[in-house]
Amino acid sequence: MPHPLLDSHPLLPFLAADLRTRPGVLEETDGNPARAAVAIILRTRPVTSHDLPELEVLLIQRAERQGDPWSGQIALPGGRQDPVDATLQDTAIRETREETGIDLAASGLVLGTLDELRPRTPVLPPIIVTPFVAIVPGDIPFHIGDELADAFWTPWSIFADPARIDETTVQVRGAPWRVTSYAVGDRVVWGMTERMLRQLAERIAALPSRPA
Q1: How many structural domains comprise the chain?
Q2: Contact indicator for 92, 78 with CB cutoff of 8 Å
Q3: Residue 85 within a domain
Q4: Residue-wise pLDDT tens digits, 96-112
């Protein structure tokens, strides 16, 4: 029987089927470099009976922390795999719960994985990051953990529109870098977060069957 969360938006059953039949490309490693996992969490925005359903994605802003190479950046919930995690999906679930209070295992549905990514910036530590796509109820509460400065729902339409992809100059350890980015209000989404969201947008745009 289909999961009830898949009924919250007409796109979600097609996305779930695509991720199930074409999971992301994963690398086989011996633990070097380290592995991490993040969650791209989608929800259908709570609407009145007169509105069309709209997807949103949960973004976080990391707290300013000395020694954190991603300090202050807009990101997705997630982090490094811990010895207590049996799988990388367990990592994504645990980190999401610790950072936002959202329990994907209890209240959400993990649809599948996208292709793994590595940082392109040479000053960042070597790491392999696995993105997991998940959905949650539209009214699910969250809180901001100690590692975060903020967390907020953002219209998926920003990332679904290729015209919203831009270039921005950001500061990386005091040096200017020209990067591909999305603008979310006065915030800039770039780096691996931008690449993961663009990868998902491209997967959705290429779905063989999807609602008009």
Answers
A1: 1
A2: yes
A3: yes
A4: 999 999 999 999 999 99
